[in-house]
Amino acid sequence: MSEELLTRDAILNIDDVRIEKVVVKEWGGKVVYCRSMSGPDRASLLKEHNDPDHDDATGPAHMAARVLCDPQTGERLFEDKDWERLWAKNAKAMDEISKLGLKLAGMSEEEQEELRGESEEAPS
C-alpha cells in the first residue's frame, strides 16, 4: 500500500468534520448530533476557560454550544452566547454532550478533566 501525499489544496478541501449521535435520556431519549470543533471554536473555548472570571461549572454548556449541530450540514445549532440558556438545561444531558465534544476535539484526558473542573491541584 503506497502512501498518498496530500497537497495544499487537498488538505484545504478535505471534509474532516466528524459528526456523532448522542441519545439524551434526560430529553426523552431523543437524539442530538455533535460535531468536532474547528480551530477557532476550540481556541475560543480555551480562552474562556482561562479567563479568571470563568466558572468551571459552566464548561459543559460552553462546550455544548460549540458542538451541537445539524447532522445534514454539520452547521452549529447555537452561537457561543447561547451557553447561558443551555446551562439552564439538565446538567446530566450537558455533561454527556460535553464529554462527546471533548472526545471529538481530540483533547487528552488531562485536558478534558481540566475543562470539566475535575483536575486535582497540587497542594501548596
Number of strands: 3
- In the CATH hierarchy, the third-tier topology is known as rbstp2171
Overall radius of gyration: 16 Å
Q: Give the SSE string.
A: HEEHHEHHH
Instruction: Round the mean pLDDT to the nearest integer and report it.
Output: 87
Terminus-to-terminus distance: 54 Å
Q: State the helicity in percent bands.
A: 40-55%
Q: Pairing-aware structural class of the strands and helices? A: alpha+beta
Sheet with most strands: 3 strands, antiparallel
Q: How many domains, as an integer?
A: 1
User: What is the beta-strand fraction?
Assistant: 5-15%
- Number of contiguous helices: 6
Spatial order of the strands forming the largest sheet = 1-2-3
Shape: globular
- CATH homology group: Phage tail assembly chaperone gp13-like
Q: Which architecture per CATH?
A: 2-Layer Sandwich
What are the low-pLDDT stretches, counting only 5+ consecutive residues below 50?
none
CATH class equals Alpha Beta
